[in-house]
């Protein structure tokens, strides 16, 4: 079944972590701030207290955009 | 975590509200926040047509979607900036959004319509790319609204954008910019009112709104914005927000509530000094407006008229 596959952006890349683990813990483990990302597990948005099982596909989607404000 | 409204399973947690929401209740929450901003700041009067500045990113597409759902006659304005590998997919998201909903879109393309792109404009005028981009967009928003007879232009500036700009203005105590940093900028001499209906929503909320509504948007960061000063301010504010949820909203809303008088005299003096640019007619305090100077230096034509035709 393998671990948890995680898609990261900017630049786009994939890492694998060992599950099960909480969504908020995953965000922290990868060095992100919760306010700056969404966690999408198998295509569904989840809250920080969600548990992510091995075999899941996760996207950590950044929400911070900048430039000309 | 349960939805604060219906007690069903939550899909998004908003720490500054100490609340979770299910998909349907979250969409309702976003709509309610926009309705509240529109009402509190008297942004759009009944019957007014709105031109929504859309980039293909989450904020502007969420804004356009919410305004349409609230029943406004909201048309889109997309400006192709000529940024390699970025502008084309961004435009595709906007066109697809408009096509799926059968709504009117006004496309403008800097390279083909004005003869320059953001990179060449920035280099020619010795500005940062984000400065050249913002200057170009603000001018074209005004021009397109004027040509198309729109009373109001709506932009997707969210709570994080406004808090970051406010932090920058406060760090430099730039009173003139503070005076202009309002959710509504009044119209003048035929130029449109500018409104920011997303000021009560964070960018995490607008991104979640798009995910939950199935709105495809440009997720990748603009390659020209790397190292942008406002992104640094956002990082700093998010680090504070992580420890003290609600700080960004308190910072920005406190400014609106208690800092409103700051710089009023500066703003009035600045408005009195405005006159039409002899080249394009846009209000400016300089002999020729900054947009015309940039375009002429970049070898383009600033006097082009916007074709306000439906797509």
Explain the layout of strands and helices.
The complex is a heterodimer of chains A (69) and B (311).
Chain A: E1 4-8, E2 13-17, E3 21-22, H1 23-29, E4 37-41, E5 44-45, E6 51-52, E7 57-62
Chain B: E1 12-14, E2 19-21, H1 23-40, E3 49-54, H2 58-69, E4 73-80, H3 87-101, E5 105-109, H4 110-114, H5 118-124, H6 129-148, E6 152-154, H7 159-171, H8 175-180, E7 184-185, E8 193-195, H9 203-213, H10 229-243, H11 247-258, H12 264-272, E9 275-276, E10 283-284, H13 290-297
Parallel strand pairs in B: 3-4, 3-6, 4-5, 6-8
Antiparallel strand pairs in B: 1-2, 7-8, 9-10
Helix pairs in contact in B: 1-9, 2-9, 5-6, 7-10, 7-11
What keyword list fits this structure?
heterodimer; A: 69 residues; 5-stranded mixed beta sheet; 7 strands; B: 311 residues; alpha/beta; two-stranded antiparallel ribbon; 49% helix
3D structure, described in words:
The complex is a heterodimer of chains A (about 70) and B (about 300). In chain A, a hairpin with a 4-residue loop joins β1 and β2. Chain A is globular, with a radius of gyration of 12 Å. With about 70 residues, chain A is mainly beta. Helices cover about 10% and strands about 40% of the residues of chain A. In chain B, strands 5-4-3-6-8-7 form a six-stranded mixed beta sheet, with helices on both faces. A two-stranded antiparallel ribbon of chain B has the order 1-2. In chain B, α2 links the parallel β3 and β4.
